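Moderator note: this is an archived Q&A kept for reference. The question asked for a predicted structure of one protein chain; the sequence and the answer are reproduced below.
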Amino acid sequence: MGDSSEDHVIAFHWRRLGRWLKPGLGVKRWLVVLVVGTTLIGLGLAVLLLDIYRAYPESPWLALLSLSALPRWLRALVLSLAGLSLLLIAVFSLNRTLLAPYIRPGKSVVEAVAQHRRLERGPKIVTIGGGTGLSTLLRGLKRHSGNLTAIVTVTDDGGSSGRLRRSLGLPPPGDIRACIAALSDDEDLLTQLFQYRFVEGDELNGHSFGNLFIAALAGVTGSFDQGIMEAARILSIRGKVLPSTLKDVTLVADKIPSLASEAFRIKGESLIPETSGRIRRVHLEPNDPPAYPGAIQALLSADMIIIGPGSLYTSVLPNLLVPDLVKAIRAGQAFKVYVCNVATQLGETEGYDCQQHLEAIERHVGRGLVDIVIANDRLDYPLPDRISPVAPSVGEDMMVPIYTADLVDPVRSWRHDSAKLADKLIDLLEERTGPLDLSPGDRLEPTTSLN
């Protein structure tokens, strides 16, 4: 048993060494260059040693170093194997030393390099939204690609973000902070610190450390967007997090009370879901804010654009109310997907099904914005009071093809499961080799190809 276990360990180490030679790591070419360079250095030293040997042929030290007691072929083999062994030991030890700060416990250097290269070649995916829904999506997508861009709403006026917005005149950092934390390469102590919320102190109570950190970086760098970039760099995130606009905008909603026919207006994102009534329309004040330039560039170069999930009227639509962003979405050649929520939200979407979510978007920005809708079809999980599952709409009334699958988080059944959702989105992207050729109202099963 002992010999078998030892053989297994040796075989495992040889397989791990063999992984360095797999295509795509970008290692073999540099190993060849390294070997050629080392060979040239060896030839140069050999010429020098040959001259010394000829000058002092009787030296015992030279005889020992040159292994003159052995046949020439054996001397060449022994010296070559010794040099190759030292070379490999030096290369792997140097790599381990240089990469030590970036390696997680239990993961080898080759695994870290292979993962980095795979994510580096991943599709360019742009997500649009805010709140918990967007950070949940990003947490799943970062396993598939490092080319992620999150475009985040900046209309929050409640809690810590609202207080910083009013006192410092900054765009609200809360949703941006959550997305940065979700994209962090390793959600360890630093990321937990970034998400920490103070629970004591008259001035600090309710503030998130990450919000204060971004606000401080904005002051140090001189601009809010530079502060975001520095925070993202410090947490080593996979991708980018961008605001939809840097303009100071306020979200305004027109709501219709259940017992009245005339709508009334509510200003402020935090007040909208707290006020009873059905939302008829939302808009921004001012109503034509300029889009953040980096967000437009990301949309135009994306392979896939994902709208949602998140609060329909207070997280998703505020981004789509920036006219230049909608124009960029329509102009880009990306595969465009709307991710419908798994559960309704009090004060916003009570009684909505998937079709009504899509119709709300179309009322605000027009039809033809997305190629497909993805919705959850697992509706038997228990939900909190007054919250119901969002049923996928199937039928001719659905103007966009719909793909359904089990996407719900079994622990928090009012949210998506980040891994399930990301896997299905990547499957859809990989299956799509051309323009969609589906009739309105088609329902795609998870096994259906989009070719």
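Archived answer notes: The radius of gyration is 29 Å.
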